[in-house]
Every structure is written in C-alpha cells, then in structure tokens.
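Q: Structure tokens for this one, please.
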Amino acid sequence: MSMYFRQAARRTLLCTASAGRNKQAIKFGTHHHHLHTHNTSSSVVAASAASSTILSREFSAVKKKKAINGGDNKNNELSYQERKDAEKEQRRESWEKKQTRLEHLKTRRDNSPKDVKKTLFRSWWDKELLYHNKLQRMAKKEGKPWRIRVAAMVERLPVVTPDVEDWEREYLDLRDYLMTFGKEYPAETGFMFAPDKPEDHVVESDEEMIAGLPFTPAPRETEADASGDVKTLDRQLKTRLYLTIKSDIEGNLSGSRWTLPSTLAKKDESLLAAAERAVSDSVGSDLKLWCPSNAPMAVNMRVYNDKLPESFRENYFGEKIFYYRVQYDNTGGGVDESAMKADDYAWLTREEIIERIEEERGKHQAKFFHYML
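A: Here is the predicted structure, written as tokens:
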C-alpha cells in the first residue's frame, strides 16, 4: 500500500479525502479509488501518513530551491533558464566545497601533505610488479627456466650518532631548561624554593661540556672524508656503508660496472650460503660477516639480451636475483686485495651507490637500489 502511494505521489500528489458512510474517494493525479465503508478509516490513516511523509520531503526540496532563488517573489520573476542556471551554480558551489574539504582533510593536522613517500613508492612498485608478472608469463610461454643469482649487501653500521636536526636541537635545549629550572609559579603563591646553589642551574652548551671532559673526543669527520678515500671503513661514520665492487661477473655487454657482490647459486647450497660465497669470491675470505636472517631482502629480475654470448645465456630466459643483507663484523678482517677477483671495490653510502648506478644503468635501476638499500 505504501509503495503504491509513493509511486502515485511522484507523478502528481493531489490528496483529497472525504469521509462518508458508504464510500471514500482518494485522488492521486487522475486516478480515483473507491473504498468500502469498513476500509475507510484504515485507508485514510495510511493515505495521510504516506502523503505527509512525501509532502515533507518535497517541501524540503522546495525550500532549498526557494533559498537558491531568494523566495517565491524572486522565483516568479526569474525565467526558466535563469532558474536552471541558478540551480546549476548551486550544485557547482556544493561540489567545490566538497573538494575543498577533501583537500583540507589531507593536511588538517600539521598543514603538510600526507603519504607523499608512500604514493611515490606505490607509483613505482605497481608498475614494477606488473612488469615482473609480464616477464613470468613470457618465460612460461617460451618454456625457458630462470637462473638463480644471489647478491650480498655487506653493511657497515654507523659508528657515531647522526647529526642532530635543528628542530631536535631546539627540543633538547627546551627539555634541558625545564629539567634544570622546573616549573615556575608566581612569587605570591610561596611554592617556589630559593636555589641553594645558583651554579647548579646553569645549562651548558655542547662545546662547554666537551671542553670540560678529561679527554679529547675523536673527530666525527675523519681524514678519509677530507681526502675522499672510499676504500677504507674509517669514513662516513654517521651513516651506513655498503661494500660495492666493479666487476663483469653479471655478463654485461658494456664490461665492468659497479654492483654488489653476487654469484650464481648452486644446486646443493642454500641462498644464504651462496651470498657468503659471493663475498668471499669477490673480495677474499678475510671479511667477517653476520647474517641476521635466512630470508632475502629483495628480489629482482633480469632478462638475458640476445646479444649476450650463447655460452653465457645457455637456454635460460633470464635471472632472478635475490638480495641478502649481511652485516660487517668489526672484530677483524677486511678486503683481501691479493685474493680479490673484482676489478675494484669501494665502501659507499646509499646515495653514492645510487649515483653511480644511475650513471651506468639509468634511473630505473637506480630507483630499485634507492628503495632496497
């Protein structure tokens, strides 16, 4: 019954109810319905309830239109096209307010855009994942297997703490001040105690604190930083360093290039054992390493170029390169240049590795090392 009332009311709602002993007339548009006496009261109640609900909805919509047009008098003065233009302008303003609010929600906390790095990573990762899936289908279609190559990221952890940012320095100064003087109350409250020793409430700077030490601290910047020596671990103490070699073990057409130590995995060894063997084959076995996990850090795919020698390609479609993160143990040992098979080596920071790879291979491969290291 209520559905029928709503459908009829959408066409034209003209509800007239006349109570009578023998019949009841309800008019919806051009439709007349005659009800018997015993259904008169229930029909009237249902009709009036449905019609009042629909009328209230329509009246609210009419009020909005009147607000747009400035009332009945102004609405009567406007033409049909002017009323349509006013309604269109109102919808445009409503949409602009919604878009402004959505943009404001992104920066409502600290007035800075949200998820910037996450968005940049997803824009690269989604395309990379689609490309890897495409390579998998191509290899399956051609019926060629993949070679397994394992690369080792030999990492030297920071030796000293990194430089303090300006905002962090301001926070530390404020914290030291509050810890030294504590809370201050008005003098009339009597809560404050007179300092017994004024010298205990002096905040020393870092320079004054270092000058009062009984020994001379080692410099944070070493001679290797000044001279640009990249073959020593006594450089860039505030950040991480990675062992990088220059070699042609990957079968490059352009010859030797900067890369991480790597080797092809054997059938009878684990991937972690292959990573350790990759380091010893490249720079000797004097380096002491610690492996925090048996799981690889990342994986990448490389398709063999048709220009590569057939003796190197064999019947493989390409290589799946698994990257393992291993840490340098500073208890002893280093690169054995006499047993080194690589053409050159260097202990480089993340930024230095990305710069060299971008020069040799382009921005796409450099982006992979940017997110992996």
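A few notes: The first helix runs from residue 2 to 11. The chain is about 45% helix and 15% strand.
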